[in-house]
Write a structure and sequence with these properties.
274 residues, alpha/beta, Rossmann fold, 2 domains, three-stranded antiparallel beta sheet, 11 helices
């Protein structure tokens, strides 16, 4: 029988080996979600033990990239938390009309749901052409997937419901084109979009961005990585820059003092000027 359940010790061995082989560091991700994904990889490749997976990792660049991609958590639907996106348009983007360019960073992008929601929102408020966009991905496979902007029809129904709750007269068909069992964004990435292939915690930007979009990622980190990620995100923002987190996420006590939530409950923060 194929082993599909790993111990915490197995998980540590796998993440340590992955880090040693590739530099990709999943050692401080929340154990529950990471354990589930590694067990799924074991089943899909018919590995009987964690040691077999570790052995396969060694020197196998293709498998390494695929494994890293499989460990990441993709978005669930587009326009998730529509009230947040409506609040962003009203309370933040309306003040950007005279600011060009608008520098935006979307790190740790996996499949692009949040990214394409964001650029569609920017197009709705006539700021698309002012975007100077940097997208962070962990692997080249992620970059190719994000550029394709193709999403499973399993996500279409909830996306439609989200758009109905959005402050817009547009419909699903205004934003997306259906292609058999997938749909794709009609608005594509700006042609000068810059992709960087690197870990979030290796990002070397400082005081560069007007907006950083990092929604529903912190939930997957343990306390140590949460603090380190928030430090990086905070340092990426220029004075008065905005950070978008997921509705169920908090910046932590230190950054609650350094950031102000400008729309209560929607997790839209502004970097305070001292």
């Amino acid at each position: 029988m194929i082993k599909t359940c790993i111990s915490i010790s197995d998980l540590r061995q796998i993440t340590n080996s992955l880090y040693a082989e590739t530099g990709y560091d999943f050692r401080d991700y929340a154990l529950g979600a990471l354990k589930y994904r590694i067990e799924r990889v074991l089943r899909s490749y018919n590995f009987e033990t964690s040691l077999e997976l570790i052995s396969f990792l060694s020197g196998n660049k293709t498998f390494q990239d695929n494994f890293v991609s499989d460990l990441q958590i993709s978005g669930t639907e587009l326009f998730r938390d529509p009230e947040m996106w409506s609040a962003l348009k009203k309370s933040v983007l309306s003040k950007f009309a005279k600011r060009k360019p608008i520098r935006v960073f979307v790190p740790c992008t996996v499949t692009g749901e949040e990214l394409y929601t964001f650029i569609n929102i920017m197009n709705d408020v006539d700021l698309y052409d002012d975007l100077e966009l940097v997208v962070g991905v962990l692997t080249n496979r992620n970059e190719l997937q994000v550029k394709q902007a193709v999403f499973s029809m399993r996500k279409a129904e909830q996306t439609k419901k989200n758009i109905e709750l959005l402050d817009t007269e547009k419909t699903f068909d205004d934003y997306f084109a259906i292609r058999q069992d997938t749909f794709t964004s009609k608005i594509k990435l700006p042609p000068d979009t810059r992709f960087i292939v690197q870990s979030l915690l290796k990002t070397d930007f400082s005081n560069m961005f007007d907006i950083v979009v990092f929604r529903n990622k912190l939930l997957n980190f343990n306390d140590k990585m949460h603090r380190e990620a928030m430090q990086i995100l905070y340092e990426c923002l220029n004075k008065g820059g905005h950070l978008l987190l997921g509705i169920g996420e908090q910046p932590g006590e230190l950054y609650k003092r350094r950031l102000k939530e400008i729309v209560k409950g929607e997790r839209i923060f502004i970097k305070k000027s001292y």
